[in-house]
């Protein structure tokens, strides 16, 4: 189509007017300009997620792991633990590792931006970790009751974490202290439980000042299995601003802490099942321990060339006591607790003493010997 110079100029003038209007609109009412950034913090070391462990000395998420963020716009009102306008609904944020307080290490797409009218657009943030964690069912908008079912294999267990609520955030005033950056402060919602077994003393026998045990006279104790009965593996988790509460725990399950195998025990503690931190941490749903939560420990005892003897001990976990000057019984698993149960195997040696019955009291036996008659001698 033919266009005249006049029409082209006219179109160009409309274009300039449009650009001017856009520019004017941006200057008069800039809605979103500054990207929302994140950092994270965990009050205690995150111990297990996606079948991997984190260095116990660190309080940061796994490198390359994801958490899920929800944000709510409460307008001019402060956060009141009710959802109004959902600003971010299940946004995946990836932590690249290498600096938990560095917002450039956290990425998500598409980027979301802070409203410039801060007073009228207060944002509240909440998150859970890890994304895609087996057994986690989140509410539709992130705030509300979570349902959870724990795995029974420690290699598959996850460290289910919720964040504290970062309430009433503005670009110029965030809980991280850095403009535009929100700090998601995670806490553990499960109980970390570990089991270890040892003997109460060294049952080896050493002769002639040797440091090598005398096999013919030493006793070997071998752990065969540990199982738990009636552990609840499901529950409902309802968050609050800085913590959460478990309810409706159910699904009493038997767990094989150490399935049938062999582990020679010593006086020094031996972690089970394999002694490697990849397998020995159990992440349990917090719960009150009933009398039916029982650990069954099976082990064998063999001395020298004698036949092996199998022993089974049953331990009621709610009778376990904490260490210290005033030990208390552990009646409940609570969120963020780190409990180590130590089963100490002690043998009862067969011992002997000797005792001889005394002779009975003397029994008198008297005999009267008659005097013989006098004898007459004839000369």
Nutshell version of this structure?
The chain is mainly β. Helices cover 6% and strands 38% of the residues.
Distance between the termini: 194 Å
Helix content: under 10%
- CATH topology type of the largest domain: Immunoglobulin-like
CATH class of the largest domain: Mainly Beta
Whole-number tally of structural domains? 2
Mean pLDDT equals 86
Largest sheet, strands/sense/barrel: 8 strands, mixed
Radius of gyration (CA) equals 38 Å
The helix-strand sequence is HEEEEEEEEEEEEEEEEEEEEEEE
* Category by helix and strand content: mainly beta
State the shape. Answer: elongated
Number of helices: 1
Taken as a percent bin, the fraction of beta residues is: 35-45%
Give unreliable regions as ranges: 1-32, 47-55
Number of strands: 23
- The CATH architecture assignment of the largest domain turns out to be Sandwich
Write up this protein:
By secondary structure, the chain is mainly beta. It has 2 domains: 30-188, Immunoglobulin-like; 192-231 and 251-345, no CATH class. 6% of the residues lie in helices and 38% in strands. The chain has 1 helix and 23 strands. The strands form 5 sheets. Strands 2, 3, 4, 5, 7, 10, 11 and 12 form an 8-stranded mixed beta sheet that branches. Strands 8, 9, 14, 15, 16, 20 and 21 form a 7-stranded antiparallel beta sheet that branches. Strand 14 (219-239) and strand 15 (244-258) form a beta hairpin. The chain is elongated, with a radius of gyration of 38 Å. 26% of the residues are buried.
């Amino acid at each position: 189509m033919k266009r005249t110079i006049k029409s082209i100029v006219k179109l160009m003038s409309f274009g300039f007017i449009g650009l001017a209007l856009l520019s004017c609109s941006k200057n008069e009412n800039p809605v979103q300009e500054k990207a929302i950034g994140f950092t994270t913090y965990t009050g205690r070391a995150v111990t297990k997620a996606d079948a991997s462990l984190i260095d116990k000395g660190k309080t940061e998420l796994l490198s390359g792991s994801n958490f899920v963020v929800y944000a709510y716009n409460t307008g001019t009102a402060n956060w009141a633990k009710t959802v109004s306008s959902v600003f971010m609904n299940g946004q995946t944020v990836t932590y690249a590792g290498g600096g938990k307080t560095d917002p450039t290490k956290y990425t998500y797409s598409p980027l979301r931006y802070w409203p410039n009218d801060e007073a009228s657009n207060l944002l509240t943030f909440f998150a859970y970790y890890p994304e895609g964690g087996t057994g986690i069912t989140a509410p539709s908008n992130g705030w509300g009751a979570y349902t959870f079912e724990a795995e029974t294999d420690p290699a598959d267990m996850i460290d289910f974490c919720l964040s504290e609520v970062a309430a009433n955030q503005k670009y110029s005033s965030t809980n991280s202290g850095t403009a535009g950056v929100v700090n998601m402060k995670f806490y553990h919602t499960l109980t970390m439980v570990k089991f270890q077994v040892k003997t109460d003393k060294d049952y080896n026998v050493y002769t002639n000042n040797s440091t090598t045990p005398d096999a013919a006279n030493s006793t070997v104790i071998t752990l065969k299995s540990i199982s738990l009965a009636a552990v609840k593996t499901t529950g409902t988790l309802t968050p609050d601003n800085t913590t959460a509460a478990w309810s409706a725990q159910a699904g009493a399950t038997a767990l094989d802490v150490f399935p049938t195998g062999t582990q020679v025990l010593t006086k020094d503690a031996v972690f089970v099942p394999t002694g490697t931190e990849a397998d020995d941490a159990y992440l349990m749903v917090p719960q009150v321990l009933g009398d039916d939560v029982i650990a069954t420990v099976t082990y064998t005892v063999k001395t020298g060339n004698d036949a092996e003897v199998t022993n089974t001990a049953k331990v009621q976990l709610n009778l376990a006591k904490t260490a210290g000057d005033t030990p208390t019984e552990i009646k409940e698993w609570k969120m963020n607790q780190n409990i180590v149960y130590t089963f100490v195997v002690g043998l009862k040696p067969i011992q002997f003493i000797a005792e001889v019955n005394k002779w009975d009291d003397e029994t008198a036996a008297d005999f009267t010997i008659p005097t013989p008659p006098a004898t007459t001698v004839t000369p």
